[in-house]
Amino acid sequence: MIDETLDENFIEEGNEKEKYYRAYFGNDADYYLREIEALKNERSYSLNFWPFLFGLLWMFYKKLYVPGFVLLGTQIVIGFAEDFIVEKFALGAYQIYFDLFWMLAVGILLAFYGNVLYLKKAEKDVEAIISETQPGQDRYDQLAEKGRNNPGAVIIFILILIIISMIGF
Length: 169
Fold this sequence. Notes:
Layout: H1 16-25, H2 29-41, H3 49-61, H4 65-88, H5 95-132, H6 137-147, H7 151-167
């Protein structure tokens, strides 16, 4: 749930904080402002199809690096545990089901809570920039830069996965 620090009239047109969030979210501002309003008022999750489909790639694209690396580490640990269990109990024929279950569980979790993670990060970033800068164009520029998506991280992540798969890990 989004922090209660957002005032109740957050989305009202002309609100200075709304302008800051618009700068942060860029072209996606209308969508994310609606999601913030919905999370404040009526629900504790936000359904988003893209994190379901792209998981870690979506997280790195949205600059959710810490949760992304935590999830990656968790996936690696679960992968080793799965390999151990499959080998120990001779369940090789069922490994595909373990993989599918884990993939669906992570996808569903991210579909419902990926936006919540992203919006909490956005709130933290916006509040930090507001407290560290003086009002003016520089503040908006910093918000836009901080909120900009990062396709480069996705490309690097894909290249690392390709290299790891070529090495044979």
